[in-house]
Each structure stands twice: as structure tokens, then as C-alpha cells.
């Protein structure tokens, strides 16, 4: 690595020693949490401090030369090593910010935290941090697996509920799959490169069939962790099953660790020598994930499931941008490759902040109003004004509305897609045009999903007595929410400076410069042919609102009066329904109906069955509507059937006679010896 | 001097659009009435309605929140910002370098989001119904708009509206099939975004198929005036966008001075008048679709956009 990145020659750089201390602190905090469950508050404090330390280390890593350190521990012949380079630092920044918000929220909730949550949370954070700063494949896998196992413990926190147990089991299966695939990919690569260090791998990029296999394995391994279609089935089940702040961290930081692994292995280490098709699977799977995730987010009926599906959408957009960067680089369009990478990095940061905030808001709603179901919430803006205000900002960012943070990254992504027609063959051009349409569809569906989520949870009338008597979140939780909302506004207003900050990270990923496309107040890709000026837009919006407000004060001074809702002349509800007739308000399924009918039937197999009773029959008419993710019927069900079949076969071994048992052992022995003889030659 | 001219034309453009918006709605209504054999109200009627509404005291539903109070301001401001980006009688206004088609779409999405949330705020059945349909239609209109942007970006080199207008005005590109397809797609998107026939009927109230009017049922007084104004401004900006991209002739460069601006203004008036007449004729001749036929309509727009891009790929490949 030293040759390429100019690594700091100091063998024990203080910044990495600090990082190791923070990791050790997190592990000790995890153990302490396991031994003394009452230590929740202290553990959360340690996590908060460590997260802020990670932010500082990340800023150091982004601004200074890379540094590397070999740890005195590890498997024989392979000491673990840490590398802080700009790409890792950018994702460490993401982790630090999300973990700080989640820890602050955990601090508010520390008195009621379950012991396994107290113990698991710091280990989870430590695992993610370790895999980000790993300098070799073994450390990477170690951190990745620690992250997977710790988060599995956290997902299984509500294990009294069978659905949560099932979610945790499914999550463990997918975690195993992703670990196995990544280990296989790294082993294959290391075998041809002659070492497992990232710098060794970088020096020997794979080619031929090996490149294709490594691409497929990394896509399966990191993609299943990130929630890429078709390996996303676990995500909308497992993310919501964990406690609120853990869901926030899983959706904002953990999927980013998987994306980091993709960017590191497929863009940085695999090098510029890859062919044009190298990025195509990333782009195709990313676009498909974006649409499927957004569509599911617009149809689901549980706040946290909606947010998890929206995570699939955003992961899809980020991965599509990475794929696009690989395609551009293979086509020798360096500036566009840098632009697409910048889009991916910026959107990764923006998504982690607004998604962490939205999950924390969902957790505050669950605590304050007692439900995650959209059909029992409603009207919470009156009881939880601070949470509602923050959630409004965050949901607007998730809906990619300017001038907030979600818009800048998606704008960059679409701009780089719009320039994609310059790439050669016709199928590629058509595919990129289709990707433009899919990204637009995903963005608009995400906006629909966020309007639906916000409108059904915070606006309207309460749909149940519990949400009518909701309580505002405690001060620390509100502080976490306000922090996330403030950061979202800041990121939205300063995409240019942030891209400048990410400049070295972009250079690490694709060896290209992005600085000339990102100015202080302006994003100007392609030599300034067009531009997006977020601060100017915000200023104009604010000026417009202020002018309108003053004008209305002047020309329409009458104070509004309260009255019953008009509702096209619906009669007022009877007195036993103090919040009006609940049926006279859109339900979650009702609000999703247009999209379910327009797009759901083809993609999600949505169906609606109307049962009308015969005339004269007093039975009620029924409308049954639903949808199912095709991945369950298409992938998971056959896998489950295969598992049952294998188990059935294995069961038959029990009934074998002694003779057969002996011959089986003998046969195995002979086969192993034959294998050994073959390997020796 | 050039900077001053750019700024001055930007201010004149804003003033023009702000005054013109309700007038344009009045003209379209008047034209439709004449086509149907009625005398029709004066084109000034929307401005008179606006004044009347401003003088009335707004009534807020008891279940409504601060969203009802704030949303119309956000929506009108976002639409005004969007209108600032679309050139009318000159090119090269002060905001031309940032007049990006996607940013325009973002501003309109912001206005749409505010409108949908305002519709859901009171917790009445029609508001939610309208919001759900509006967001669903937008989900199909947005990709079509992006594909139109792709066609324009391939031909003009960027998605900047001003740059597109400049390249198309030179006429060097000639008449292209892709431009016709993109025009058809953009017209369909414009009809859907403005809640015009065949997607929605702007003249109906209290009908089960309505979309836009359903969301502002609870608005009254100045809030209703703001919503009406927002719709009028959005219509004006979409017509101006169509004129700027597909009929960019006669637009004066900002630096050409008052004479050039007057010529540009005359050309703009002629273009907008013709588009208003076309809209009125179209709306009088066509029936409104069922709500669930709208996806087919917008899907066709999406396919037209894709086809336009495809033709461009093939033709640029042959050159």
C-alpha cells in the first residue's frame, strides 16, 4: 500500500493507537454490560464517547496521509493489521455519526434496556469499526463476523415473540451466507495474490474467470448484508425486530459497512483493469433494489418495516452509483467515474444520518404512542411536536426533496446517469436509459412512501386511544433526534464542501479527482454545464416563504378560527367516538391502494379480492388485499424445501445397519486419502 | 452591465409570471367556455376570486395542525423558485446557470409533498384519497420526466433548461423523431402534474375521482387562495417550460436590451396564448379517464421517453 498511497512511515501512529484503545474500551464496556446489567447508562456513555472518537479519527483520516499499524495479535503467520485511509475514514465518519445518535438515544432509554442489548451494542459498534479499518482480509472477516454475531444477539432481543425468533434465525442464516461468501472470495483472491493484506490484493487484481467468481462472491457476501435484491428478504424482518436505537444503527451504519466492503474490494482493490461488464451487475441489482425497496416501503403497514424497506431502496441507489463508477472507469471516463463515486459516498452519508433519525423517531413513537402499526397511530403532531418536527425534516430528506440531504446525492447520481449515453455499445446505452427511469421511479416512490408514513403517523386524527394519549420523547431522545435533523439540514446545504472532504476517498476508490466538480456553494458536474446550488435554493425558498408570510399579514389579516372539518359534508361522529369515525380516515392499506394496483400487481404479486354477499344476505362485504415479496416464494421457500429434503435424507442414516455404517466410515477414509494423494501431487 | 441585465430580466420574469399565472387560468377557462358555447367569465375572474378569498377569514379544521397553516406557504414558495428557473421571454437570466431540469423537478416535488401533507392533515377521507392518488401519479410521471431530461441532455449536452433552449433555438439539430417523442412525453407529464383532463378535472368538486381538488377541500380563506395560486403558477411554469424547450424561437438573450426583450415578450405571449388555446381545445375534446387508466397514460409517456432516447442512441450510433 505504501507505494500507492504514501502511507505514514510511523509504525505506531497515534491515531491508530487511539482507535485500538477505543475498540478495547468498547469490548470492555460490552463485557461489563454482560456482567452488570445495571451498567446500561455507563455503557451507553462509553459508546457515545467512542462514537465521537471515531468521528474525530475519521476527520483526521480524511485530511491527513493514510496510516497503517500491525497489531501484535492474530492467527499464526498473519498478524492483524489496521489501515486508516480516506475511503475507510469516510465510512468511519458515517459509523461515528450514526453510533453517536444511537448511543444518545440509548442513554435516554438506559434504565429499561435488556442486559443482552446493553452487552451487545458496544460489541456491535466495535465489530463495525474493526471491519472498516481492517488492513487485511482476516481482520476484515473478523470484524464483519463480530458485527454479524453481535447484531444477531440484538435482533433476537424480543425472543419471547415467535416472529422475532424467526427473524433472528433468518438473519443468522443470511449472516452465515455472507460470511462464507466473503471468506471464499478473499481466499480465492489471496491464493492468486500470494497474501491476504489489502495492499497485496490490490497489487494483484483478479482477471478472467477468477474475477467473475470473486465479483459474484463479493456481491453475494456483501450484498446480502447490505440488503441487495434478491438477498434482501431478511432485512425488513430483522431490522425492525431489534430495539429502536439498534435498528437505527443497523439500517444506517451496518449496511454501509457492507457497501464499504463492496467499494473496497470491487472498486479500489480490483483496480482499473476490469472490463466494462464489471459494474453492470452492481448497477442492475442496485436499480432493482431501489425500485423494489421503495415500492415495498410505499405499501408496508409498520413504521419500522417501512423504514427498513426504504433502506433497501437507498442501498440500491448507492450500489447503482458504485456500479456506474466502475462502468465509467472501464470506459475511461474518469471525471464521470469520480462523479458517480462522489454520488455514492455523499448519499451514503446522507442516508445514514436521516435513516438513523427516522428509526429513532419510530422508536420514540413506539415508546410514546405504544405502537408501530400505522393503523393505530395518527395525529401525533399534537402530542409529540418536537418528534414530529424532526421526523418531518428527516422524512423530507428521505423523500429526496431539495434542499435537504437526500436530494444532493440522488441529483449527482442522475447527473452521472444522464451522461452515461457516451458509453459505447447500444445495449449498454439502453440499459443506462432504463436505469435513469428506474432511479426516477424509485425516488418518486420513496417520496410517496415518506408522505404516507408521515401523514399517517403524525397527521390526521388518532386511530386509537393510545395514540390520543401519546407522550413526547424524553429530553435525551429529543436531543438525538434534533441532532440528526440538524445534520440532515447541514449535509443538504453543504454538499460541495462535503464532496471536497470526500475528495481523497473518491481518489482512493477510483483514482480520480472530483474537486473541480464540487465548489463551495455549487455542485457543477461536467465542467459546469449545469449546476445545483443548495444554499441559494434554500435562501430563495426562505425568502419566498418570508415574503409570502409578510404579504399575507398585510393583505389578509383575519385570524383563522377553528371549526369542525368539512369533509364533503360528512355528518359529525357520534359522541362515543371523540376523535371522529376511524373509518372515515385513510388507513395504511387504503393509502397504499393506488400504488398497489398500479405497480404492485406486477412486481409484488399484489391482489385484491372483493367478496360481495348476495342481495338480501346481511353478511358484510369484504375486501381482502395483500402482497408478497417475490423473494420469499422464489428463493427462500425453495431453499427451505431443500433444507427439509436434506434433513430427511440425513435422518435415514440413523436406520443403517452396522455393516453399512462401517462401510460408510471406510469409504470416507479412502476418499480422504485419495484427496490427500491428489493434493500432494 | 451583463450581470445587471441578467438580474433585471430575472426580476421582470418573476413579476411577469406572478401576474400572468391567474390570468392564464382565467384565459383557459374563458376559452373553454367559448368552445362550449358559453359566454364565460372574464379572464380576470381568478384574480378577483383571489382578492375575495384573501378578505375572508380562514376556517381551520379542529383536527388540523400547524401543517395546514404552513404548507401553502412552502408550496407556493417552492413553485415560485421553480418558476424562477424556467425562462420565459429571455435566455441567460441571473439564475440560468443553476436552472437544472432535475432541480426544477425537485422543487415541484417539494410543493407536491406539502400539498399531500396538507390534504392528510385534517384526517378527512377525501384529503387522504387525493394525496394517495397524487403521489401515485407522480411516481409514474417522474421517470417519464427524467427520460425527457435524458433526451434533452443527449442533444444539448446537459440538463440545464437554459442551455437546452439555447441549443434547440439554433436549429442546427433539425427536426428529430426523438424530439417529437420527448414532446409527447413531456405534454403527458405536464397534464398529469397540473391535474388537467384527462388525468383530473380542474373544474369539478365533490366527485369521487378527483385528485387535486380533494386535497384542498379543507382549505379556506387565504390558504385556499394560496393553493389556487400555486396551481395557476404551476400551470404557467409548465406551459413556459414546454415553450422554452420545444418552441425556443424568439427568446432574446438577456443582454440584448429592452428592444430585444419586447420582441421576446411578444413571442412569449404568442406562444403561451397558442398553448392555452391548444389546452382548451384538448380539454374540450377529450373526456376524463378513469383513475386506474391513468397509469397506462403515464406508462405510455414513459415508453415514449424511452423510445425517444433509443432513437437518439441509434441515430448517434449511425453518424
UniProtKB/TrEMBL annotation, chain A:
It is a multi-pass membrane protein. Residues 135-419 form the NADH:quinone oxidoreductase/Mrp antiporter transmembrane domain. The chain crosses the membrane at residues 15-36, 43-67, 87-107, 114-134, 140-158, 170-191, 211-234, 246-263, 275-298, 305-328, 348-368, 380-401, 430-455, 476-494, 529-550, 661-679. GO terms for molecular function: lyase activity; NADH dehydrogenase (ubiquinone) activity; oxidoreductase activity. It is found in: Cell membrane; Membrane. GO terms for biological process: ATP synthesis coupled electron transport. Pfam families: Proton_antipo_M. Keywords: Cell membrane, Lyase, Membrane, Oxidoreductase, Transmembrane, Transmembrane helix. GO terms for cellular component: plasma membrane. Its main location: membrane. This is Formate hydrogenlyase subunit 3/multisubunit Na+/H+ antiporter MnhD subunit. It comes from Humitalea rosea.
UniProtKB/TrEMBL annotation, chain B:
One of its GO terms (molecular function) is lyase activity. Keywords: Lyase, Membrane, Transmembrane, Transmembrane helix. GO terms for cellular component: plasma membrane. InterPro entries: ComplexI_Subunit1, NADH_UbQ_OxRdtase_su1/FPO. The keyword Transmembrane helix applies. It comes from the Bacteria. The chain crosses the membrane at residues 12-31, 59-86, 92-115, 136-157, 163-192, 231-252, 258-282, 294-314. It is a multi-pass membrane protein. The keyword Manganese does not apply. It is found in: Membrane. Its main location: membrane. This is Formate hydrogenlyase subunit 4. The lineage of its organism: Bacteria, Pseudomonadati, Pseudomonadota, Alphaproteobacteria, Acetobacterales.
Amino acid at each position: 500500500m505504501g507505494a500507492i498511497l504514501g502511507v505514514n512511515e510511523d509504525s505506531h501512529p497515534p491515531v491508530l493507537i487511539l482507535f485500538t484503545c477505543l475498540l478495547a474500551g468498547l469490548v470492555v464496556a460490552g463485557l461489563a454490560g454482560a456482567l452488570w446489567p445495571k451498567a446500561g447508562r455507563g455503557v451507553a456513555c462509553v459508546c457515545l464517547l467512542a462514537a465521537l472518537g471515531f468521528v474525530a479519527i475519521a476527520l483526521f483520516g480524511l485530511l491527513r496521509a493514510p496510516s497503517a499499524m500491525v497489531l501484535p495479535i492474530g492467527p499464526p503467520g498473519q498478524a492483524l493489521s489496521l489501515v486508516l485511509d480516506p475511503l475507510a475514514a469516510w465510512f468511519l465518519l458515517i459509523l461515528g455519526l450514526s453510533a453517536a445518535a444511537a448511543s444518545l438515544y440509548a442513554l435516554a432509554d438506559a434504565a429499561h434496556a435488556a442486559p443482552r442489548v446493553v452487552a451487545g451494542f458496544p460489541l456491535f459498534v466495535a465489530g463495525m469499526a474493526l471491519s472498516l479499518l481492517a488492513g487485511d482480509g482476516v481482520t476484515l472477516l473478523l470484524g464483519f463476523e463480530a458485527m454479524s454475531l453481535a447484531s444477531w444477539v440484538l435482533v433476537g432481543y424480543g425472543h419471547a415473540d415467535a416472529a422475532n425468533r424467526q427473524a433472528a434465525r433468518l438473519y443468522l442464516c443470511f449472516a452465515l451466507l455472507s460470511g462464507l461468501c466473503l471468506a471464499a472470495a478473499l481466499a480465492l483472491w489471496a491464493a492468486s495474490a500470494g497474501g491476504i493484506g489489502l495492499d497485496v490484493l490490490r497489487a494483484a487484481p483478479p482477471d478472467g474467470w477468477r474475477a467473475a467468481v470473486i465479483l459474484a462472491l463479493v456481491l453475494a457476501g456483501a450484498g446480502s448484508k447490505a440488503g441487495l435484491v434478491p438477498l434482501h428478504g431478511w432485512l425488513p424482518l430483522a431490522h425492525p425486530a431489534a430495539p429502536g436505537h439498534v435498528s437505527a444503527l443497523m439500517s444506517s451504519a451496518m449496511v454501509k459497512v457492507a457497501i464499504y466492503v463492496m467499494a473496497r474490494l470491487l472498486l479500489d482493490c480490483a483496480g482499473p483493469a476490469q472490463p466494462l461488464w464489471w459494474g453492470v451487475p452492481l448497477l442492475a441489482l442496485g436499480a432493482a433494489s431501489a425500485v423494489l425497496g421503495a415500492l415495498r416501503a410505499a405499501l408496508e403497514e409498520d413504521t419500522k418495516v417501512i423504514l427498513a424497506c426504504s433502506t433497501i431502496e437507498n442501498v440500491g441507489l448507492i450500489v447503482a452509483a458504485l456500479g456506474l463508477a466502475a462502468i465509467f472507469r472501464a470506459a475511461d471516463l474518469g471525471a464521470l467515474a469520480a462523479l458517480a463515486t462522489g454520488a455514492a459516498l455523499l448519499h451514503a452519508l446522507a442516508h445514514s444520518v436521516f435513516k438513523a433519525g427516522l428509526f429513532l423517531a419510530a422508536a420514540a413513537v413506539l415508546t410514546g404512542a405504544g405502537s408501530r402499526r400505522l393503523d393505530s397511530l395518527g395525529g401525533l403532531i399534537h402530542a409529540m411536536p418536537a418528534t414530529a418536527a424532526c421526523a418531518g425534516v428527516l422524512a423530507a430528506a428521505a423523500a429526496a426533496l431539495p434542499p435537504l440531504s437526500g436530494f444532493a446525492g440522488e441529483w449527482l447520481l442522475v447527473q452521472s446517469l444522464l451522461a452515461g449515453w457516451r458509453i459505447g455499445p447500444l445495449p449498454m446505452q439502453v440499459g443506462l436509459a432504463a436505469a435513469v427511469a428506474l432511479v426516477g421511479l424509485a425516488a418518486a416512490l420513496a417520496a410517496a412512501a415518506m408522505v404516507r408514513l408521515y401523514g399517517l403517523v403524525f397527521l390526521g386524527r388518532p386511530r386509537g386511544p393510545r395514540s390520543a394519549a401519546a407522550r413526547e420523547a424524553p429530553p435525551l431522545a429529543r436531543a438525538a433526534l434534533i441532532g440528526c435533523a440538524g445534520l440532515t439540514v447541514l449535509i443538504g446545504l453543504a454538499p460541495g464542501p462535503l464532496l471536497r472532504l470526500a475528495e481523497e476517498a473518491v481518489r482512493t476508490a477510483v483514482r480520480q479527482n472530483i474537486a473541480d466538480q464540487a465548489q463551495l456553494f455549487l455542485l457543477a458536474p461536467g465542467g459546469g454545464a449545469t449546476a445545483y446550488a443548495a444554499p441559494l435554493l434554500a435562501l430563495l425558498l426562505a425568502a419566498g416563504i418570508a415574503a409570502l408570510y409578510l404579504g399575507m399579514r398585510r393583505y389578509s389579516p383575519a385570524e383563522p378560527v377553528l371549526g369542525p372539518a368539512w369533509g364533503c359534508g360528512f355528518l359529525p361522529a357520534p359522541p362515543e367516538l371523540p376523535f371522529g369515525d376511524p373509518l372515515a380516515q385513510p388507513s395504511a392499506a387504503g393509502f397504499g391502494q393506488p400504488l398497489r394496483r398500479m405497480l404492485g400487481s406486477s412486481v409484488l404479486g399484489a391482489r385484491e379480492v372483493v367478496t360481495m354477499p348476495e342481495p338480501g344476505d346481511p353478511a358484510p362485504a369484504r375486501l381482502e388485499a395483500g402482497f408478497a415479496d417475490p423473494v420469499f416464494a422464489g428463493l427462500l421457500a425453495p431453499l427451505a424445501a431443500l433444507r427439509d429434503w436434506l434433513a430427511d435424507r440425513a435422518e435415514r442414516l440413523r436406520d443403517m445397519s452396522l455393516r453399512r455404517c462401517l462401510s460408510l466410515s471406510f469409504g470416507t477414509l479412502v476418499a480422504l486419502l485419495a484427496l490427500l494423494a491428489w493434493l500432494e501431487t | 452591465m451583463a450581470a445587471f441585465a441578467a438580474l433585471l430580466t430575472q426580476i421582470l420574469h418573476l413579476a411577469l409570471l406572478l401576474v400572468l399565472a391567474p390570468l392564464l387560468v382565467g384565459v383557459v377557462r374563458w376559452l373553454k367556455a367559448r368552445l362550449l358555447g358559453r359566454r364565460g367569465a372574464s379572464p380576470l375572474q381568478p384574480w378577483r376570486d383571489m382578492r375575495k378569498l384573501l378578505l375572508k377569514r380562514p376556517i381551520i379544521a379542529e383536527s388540523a395542525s400547524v401543517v395546514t397553516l404552513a404548507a401553502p406557504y412552502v408550496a407556493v414558495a417552492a413553485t415560485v423558485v421553480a418558476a424562477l428557473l424556467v425562462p420565459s421571454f429571455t435566455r441567460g437570466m441571473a439564475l440560468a446557470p443553476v436552472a437544472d431540469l432535475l432541480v426544477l423537478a425537485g422543487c415541484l416535488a417539494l410543493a407536491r409533498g406539502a400539498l399531500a401533507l396538507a390534504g392528510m392533515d385534517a384526517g378527512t377521507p377525501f384529503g387522504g384519497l387525493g394525496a394517495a392518488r397524487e403521489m401515485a401519479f407522480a411516481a409514474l410521471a417522474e421517470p417519464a420526466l427524467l427520460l425527457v431530461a435524458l433526451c434533452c441532455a443527449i442533444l444539448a449536452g446537459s440538463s440545464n433548461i437554459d442551455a437546452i433552449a439555447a441549443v434547440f433555438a439554433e436549429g442546427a439539430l433539425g427536426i428529430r423523431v426523438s424530439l417529437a417523442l420527448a414532446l409527447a412525453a413531456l405534454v403527458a407529464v405536464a397534464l398529469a402534474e397540473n391535474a388537467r383532463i384527462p388525468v383530473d378535472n380542474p373544474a369539478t368538486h365533490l366527485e369521487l375521482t378527483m385528485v387535486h381538488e380533494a386535497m384542498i377541500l379543507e382549505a379556506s380563506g387565504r390558504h385556499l387562495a394560496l393553493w389556487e395560486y400555486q396551481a395557476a403558477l404551476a400551470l404557467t411554469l409548465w406551459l413556459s417550460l414546454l415553450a422554452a424547450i420545444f418552441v425556443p424561437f424568439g427568446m432574446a438573450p438577456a443582454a440584448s436590451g429592452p428592444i430585444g426583450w419586447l420582441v421576446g415578450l411578444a413571442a412569449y405571449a404568442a406562444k403561451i396564448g397558442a398553448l392555452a388555446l391548444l389546452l382548451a381545445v384538448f380539454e374540450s375534446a377529450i373526456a376524463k379517464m378513469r383513475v386506474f387508466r391513468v397509469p397506462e397514460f403515464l406508462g405510455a409517456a414513459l415508453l415514449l421517453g424511452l423510445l425517444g432516447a433509443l432513437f437518439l442512441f441509434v441515430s448517434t450510433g449511425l453518424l
